[in-house]
Model the fold of this input.
Amino acid sequence: MKCVVVLVAVVACAGMVDAAVVASCVHSHQYFARHNLTADDNDGPGPVCGGQCCGRRRETELSHSLKRKIEERAVSATRPIAELLLATSRTLQEHLTALSHQSQNKTSVLFLQLYRVHASRTKAPLAALYDDIRILLRSETERDVTIDIISSPLKDLSTSTRKFFRDIFPVAYQNILKLDAKQFTPEYEACLQDAYDAVKPFGEVPQQLGASLSRSLEAARVLLQVLAVGASVLTASEKILASSNEECHSKFLRAGGCAHCHGYDVSPCQNYCLNVARGCIGSLVAELDAPWAGYVEGVERVARADADAALRALDARVSEAIMHALENHAVLEKKVRQECGSPTTVDISGLTPATPTPGAARRDALRAPPPDTELLQFAATLAASKKLFSGLGDKVCDEPDFASEGNTECWNGETVGEYTKALVASASNSDQKYNPEITVGTKQELGVAALGDKLRQARQLLVSHSWGSAPAAEAFMQGDEAGDEGSGSGRSYTDDDAAYDAEGSGEEGSGAQDVGSRTYVSEDNTYSSTEKTSSGVESRPLLGLVLAAAVSSRLVSCLT
Done:
């Protein structure tokens, strides 16, 4: 009889314990349900957390869920910047490419109005020059992020510019001699081209233009590639962040999951989470902190988009070169006769000039204003990302599931209470030996050093292609943005549109002047024989606008 009483008492006691366990796991089961953790809890306790609310399979499932969330949180900080870098590279490339087509069209109209029946002979040299410009702007790193940006092949625009002027010299000289119904023989044209360097028909303009285009468009090419390289580094860092060791998996499980396995509805203590995150996440990419900050500063040093100004001024420089030949025709003719003798020609009467494209339609199709809004956003976001890698691990602890707001009455890794261990100073590898939550040194990925070298290489390349200083944000806000063209800012877009109306309309007598008995089309309506340097023809800066915004406190916002 006594045995029966004891047995009943034991069964009753066991029932009370089960009821207590079920009651204590209510909040945990709600947490598991919210995070779609559905594993059966009927097996034994898990090896890391133990606890009455998690079986072995539930604990494994919880560990995988936390690992995914940590990786997603880290990627949420890097991926938007990578996407922004690629989007900005595409925006700049599309803008400059569109601008090159606009410039080519305007120069073609100039030749059509000036050379008339012979204008078709300038089409191939003109196309070759602008094709070389667009080849230079084509960023290879977007297709292959492993390319060595320093050793990638360059297109020498000085050579392209010389070839262009050399090829159009026979047409220009024929125009000077007023041979509308005739054309030089092939032998005489070949002699003119061979004599190009000796007679220098266009003065110093071709050399100046070639140097200006080479410098500014090569800087633009480098910038386009470097933006793609930065994006590739961020993408590669995502794989490194997913490579944390088994100890770290257990550390995150204990920090972010074990409280629920024990039935507590609390988050980890703030400093507890930071110690684990800095040791297991931040330290993986901490070596990229300084190279990334240097990379951002390198982008900021590209102070002006001279490519934008150079392309906008290209047709005017071609006009200047032709004007030089016209104004110095007497000296030019003497030099040519010394080199090639009297002209030999063939009759080509009966040709009719091509009809110019209507100006209004061409303006609508080919205008290429800078993408100001996108670039302002880019500048602000990139400037705010300078400390991206140093704070990457800490972002994990911004999630309520991973950290509470303080260090008392929170999960300290063992129970609910106060977290009393010291907070490690940073995620740097040198500080991890003082991290109370990390007992094994964090595995260092060999790829991190390679990524750091790539960022340093990109910065050095940017610095080598930068010149001058970035315009002050205040000057930018008071100048270009306000529509008030200050000194050195060049013509406004309203003026540019007027130049289109004058030069690109294809209408006779609009924007033209007589040089001798020839019609010469001038963008500014006044020319002198004095040579201009490329810096004398400026336009609204593109990256000057970007980088002025980058240093403006009104535009820089913190990354979320």
The beta strands are 182-184, 345-347, 410-411, 416-417, 512-515, 518-521. The radius of gyration is 35 Å. The CA atoms of residues 107 and 272 lie 67 Å apart.
